[in-house]
Amino acid sequence: MDGLRIDKWLWAARFFKTRALASRACALGRIQCNRQPAKPAREVKVGDLLHIRTDHHEFEVEILVLSAIRGPGAVAQTLYRETEASRELRIKLAEQRKAMIDIAPAPPGRPSKRDRRRIIQFRDRQRPD
User: Fold this and answer.
1) What is the mean pLDDT of the chain?
2) How far is CA 98 from the centre of its chain?
């Protein structure tokens, strides 16, 4: 196999749950191939460098193997190699998110009816007319 559509490879490598989501990410400009924005039909080859932005993470990976078949996670991880800088940044951001949970813990339960009324009043005051 010489080349493969980028949306198909992203799906097979398990960066996105469906191929449609991978295609949409490409269309929105969240995927770059060799520092160029990538459309869903762009062909990728072994050795290409991808910059992938998902909802929660950013990855910079080098393609090692092309695969059009979605397999188990362990197999999917063999399709690429994440750069060291990308891995360090991802770990650092995860630690920051964990620290934020300690600073602002979630409320213990659902808001009461009285709390919801206060929230609605607050939102109405913030809205510009």
Assistant:
1) 90
2) 18
Residue type, 37: P
pLDDT tens digit sequence for 97-120: 888 777 767 778 899 999 999 999
Q: Give pLDDT tens digits for 77-88.
A: 999 999 999 999
Residue boundaries of the structural domains of the chain: 4-105
Tell me yes or no: is domain 4-105 CATH 3.10.290.10.
Answer: yes
For residues 15 and 32, what is the distance between their CA atoms, to the nearest angstrom?
14
Q: Which residues pair with 82 in a beta bridge?
A: 61
**DSSP, residue by residue, 80-104:** EEE-HHHHHHHHHHHHHHHHHHHHS
Q: In the prediction, which pLDDT does 1 show?
A: 66
Residues 41, 5: Cα–Cα separation, whole Å: 5
As a whole number of angstroms, the longest Cα–Cα distance in the chain is 63
Is there a contact between 61 and 34 (Cβ–Cβ < 8 Å)?
A: no
